[in-house]
């Protein structure tokens, strides 16, 4: 058996040009880890898939905006979750400079925006319109925010521009940045007992939609350029006077040298595509079932072999 393989390999080597036999580099593929659960679990899932395929994989914890510059420079190899709302601008900026490639979309529709649990509607029946939210601002007031409503935005590195939006639309809200995703879930959990009205940053796909039914606030619809050109959106003098895209993409991105250095891993990355329910499930394993990310990834892979085995060469 062994001798036959060696003979075949020798025969192949004799006829095939070297490039056809190019193998993935043994250098580590560097996968970034950020600060929300689906990204952490998905990155571990993909790390385990690529390891299974023979790759050397290394994880680094990085800022979720600065990562696009790191990928462009080749310090980080890929990114599994480019959310249009939060990271579209940083991704486009890196693309314009060069060095980063779009490796295709997941089969998922994403949305990230101001959100409330359904019980909030009882205190503010005009919801989900942003104007109605604004008229109800005092319902959301706290000691901390005085007569303004409190809006708990995401951690600063998600660059949600909540403060800019409040100014651009002249809203009676004070924007507070959560220190972590966990702080958002704690805020919703604490409000649940006595059905306190709250408005916080949230997104889909996420585990939260299965735990707390809710809705996104409807802001003026996103238009391309709303974050770059003041004339776009209802306030002619301001940026960020629109909601985030309601049907945003979720992309994969990579360093443009990845294809040549790790051709097999790059081919697999091209095939990988997760759906909304799969992504929500990845988050749930950590945020509800309290598993460690590595363990959650192993469990997800075990339960979904039919999904990913066809992606490996
Ligand atoms: C980037 N995020 C999914 C947390 O909005």
Strand order of the largest sheet: 3-10-4
Write down the overall geometry.
Answer: globular
Number of domains: 2
Report the CATH superfamily of the largest domain.
Answer: Periplasmic binding protein-like II
CATH level-two architecture of the largest domain: 3-Layer(aba) Sandwich
Return Rg in Å.
23 Å
Structure, described:
The chain has two domains: 168 residues, Periplasmic binding protein-like II (D-Maltodextrin-Binding Protein, domain 2, 3-Layer(aba) Sandwich), CATH 3.40.190; 104 residues, Glycine betaine-binding periplasmic protein, domain 2 (D-Maltodextrin-Binding Protein, domain 2). Helix 2 crosses helix 12, helix 2 crosses helix 13 and helix 12 packs across helix 13. Helix 7 links the parallel strand 6 and strand 7. About 5% of the residues have low confidence. The strands form four sheets. Strands 3-10-4 form a three-stranded antiparallel β-sheet. A three-stranded antiparallel β-sheet has the order 8-5-9. It has a two-stranded parallel sheet with strand order 1-2. The protein has 14 helices and ten strands. The structure holds trimethylamine oxide. Trimethylamine oxide binds next to loops.
Protein traits:
313 residues, alpha/beta, D-Maltodextrin-Binding Protein, domain 2, 10 strands, three-stranded antiparallel sheet
């Amino acid at each position: 058996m062994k001798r036959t393989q060696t003979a075949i390999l020798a025969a192949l080597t004799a006829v095939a040009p070297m490039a056809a036999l190019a193998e993935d580099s043994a250098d580590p593929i560097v996968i970034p880890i950020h600060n929300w659960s689906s990204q952490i679990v998905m990155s571990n899932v993909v790390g385990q898939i690529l390891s299974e395929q023979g790759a050397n994989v290394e994880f680094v914890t990085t800022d979720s905006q600065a990562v696009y510059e790191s990928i462009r420079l080749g310090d980080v190899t890929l990114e599994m979750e480019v959310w249009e709302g939060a990271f579209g601008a940083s991704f486009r900026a890196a693309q314009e400079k060069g060095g980063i490639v779009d490796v295709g979309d997941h089969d998922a529709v994403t949305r990230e925006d101001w959100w409330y649990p359904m019980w909030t509607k009882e205190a503010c029946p005009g919801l989900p319109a942003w104007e109605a939210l604004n008229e109800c601002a005092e319902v959301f007031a706290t000691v901390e925010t005085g007569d303004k409503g409190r809006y708990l935005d995401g951690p600063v590195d998600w660059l949600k521009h909540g403060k800019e939006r409040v100014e651009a639309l002249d809203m009676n809200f004070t924007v507070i940045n959560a220190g972590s995703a966990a702080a958002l879930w704690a805020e919703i959990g604490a409000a649940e007992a006595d059905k306190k009205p709250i408005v916080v940053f949230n997104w889909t796909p996420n585990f939260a939609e299965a735990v707390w039914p809710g809705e996104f606030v409807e802001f003026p619809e996103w238009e391309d350029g709303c974050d770059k050109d003041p004339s776009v959106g209802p306030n002619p003098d301001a940026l960020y006077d629109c909601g985030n895209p309601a049907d945003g993409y979720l992309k994969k991105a990579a360093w443009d040298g990845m294809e040549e250095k790790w051709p097999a891993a790059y081919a697999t990355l091209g095939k990988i595509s997760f759906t909304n329910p799969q992504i929500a499930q990845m988050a749930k394993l950590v945020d509800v079932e309290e598993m460690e990310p590595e363990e959650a990834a192993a469990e997800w892979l075990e339960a979904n072999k039919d999904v990913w085995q066809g992606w490996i060469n």
